[in-house]
Amino acid sequence: MSVSRLRDYRGPALFSYGFRPFFFFGSVYAGAIILMWLPVFYGRLQLSTAFAPRDWHVHEMLFGYIAAVVAGFLLTAVPNWTGRLPLQGRPLILLFSTWVAGRIAVSFSAWIGWAPAAAIDSVFLILLAASAAREIIAGKKWGNLMIVAIISLLAAGNLAFHLEAHFEGLAEYTTRGGIAVVISLIALIGGRIIPSFTRNWLAKRTPGQMPAPFGRFDVATIALSVLVLLFWVVRPLDRTTGGLLLVCGGMHLIRLVRWTGYRTFADRLVLILHVAYAFVPAGFILTALSAFDLVAPSAGIHAWTGGAIGTMTLAVMSRATLGHTGQRLQASPATQLIYAAVIIAALARVCAVLETDHTGPLLVAAGIAWAAAFLGFAAIYSVAFWSPRRH
């Protein structure tokens, strides 16, 4: 999207592009809810939500924070795909308001009732999918409708989460389903952007091995992963599921090696993408081990959520923000610190499952490091979000 096409906008800079409000407030929310979750987990704070405490934590990370990041990414990518103007001003404020309303409704659902809360919370992802579909269809970029299908799956999963939590007491299947959709999204989009950004950076440096382009092996890995994740959603502790998860973990490791991340240590903006993706095979392998009763299931789940999702979203948000606000694509020392913090948070959370003698301190360390990463991101990039683009 050329800068000239954005000059007619005269409203607040925060609502001039979709990534601005969703990345900023999404990261603030990600840090804040973990700081709330720690006292809730230890029984020192009670929530006014109809969800069980664990379900509130899971839901607000999957369908609160991650949904905001997906919205920021999609509302920024779609104009680039279609050549059409971005959503901005009042329409963007309205969409953002539905996200905020959902967070409030879920947090106070014990007061307003689970059904009204579910209805309010469902609006955001439905509107996001509809908005993206309209722009993609108007721009005749039919190949990008796949992303609309994935957002629609998230929207359906969100509503299903509310229903399962209410009628079954705990949202087990929809928790795994939501994680499966997001990991599939990372496998799909990561497989495009990681080798692309790596290749672009390496092309300016000394000759050497370049990342393998997206090809049949990637298609096979993603297709098998989607199938195996479906098995995991339905039968997570089945030995057959475990074996297939192990195979997928190996395929994702091969995929990662093919992207030559070992050559990108000098550019932290590129390197962090490879580090983030490394948590995808780690999650598959740990989840496979849980099917064989070797580790607790939450080890693999947190490798995926805290590791792959947390690190990848932070990496994508920082890179996209720098690029779309006219700044150099370079990780400052402060940005590198928040990258280190989110990696520490993910590793500490996984180790809290594996090292049961030190679970308490590791949980606290993970929560503090996570909050530092995301609140730190909001602080470091706040000027970029709230100020007009540099020309």
Short description:
By secondary structure, the chain is mainly alpha-helical.
Count of distinct strands: 0
Radius of gyration equals 20 Å
What is the overall number of helices? 14
Instruction: Note the overall shape.
Output: globular
Given as residue ranges, the uncertain stretches (5+ residues, pLDDT < 50) are none
Beta-strand portion reads under 5%
Q: Report how far apart the termini are.
A: 13 Å
Overall helicity: over 70%
Structural class category = mainly alpha
Q: Encode the helix/strand succession as letters.
A: HHHHHHHHHHHHHH
Largest sheet: none
What is the mean predicted local confidence, pLDDT? 93
Write a structural description.
The protein is an all-alpha fold and 391 residues long. The protein is 75% helix and 0% strand. It has 14 helices and no strands. It has helices at residues 19-41, 53-82, 90-107, 109-112, 114-138, 145-168, 173-202, 216-234, 239-258, 268-291, 297-324, 333-354, 359-380, 382-386. It is globular, with a radius of gyration of 20 Å. The model has no long low-confidence stretch (mean pLDDT 93).
Key phrases:
14 helices; single chain; 391 residues; 75% helix; mainly alpha
Write the layout of secondary structure elements.
Blueprint: H1 19-41, H2 53-82, H3 90-107, H4 109-112, H5 114-138, H6 145-168, H7 173-202, H8 216-234, H9 239-258, H10 268-291, H11 297-324, H12 333-354, H13 359-380, H14 382-386
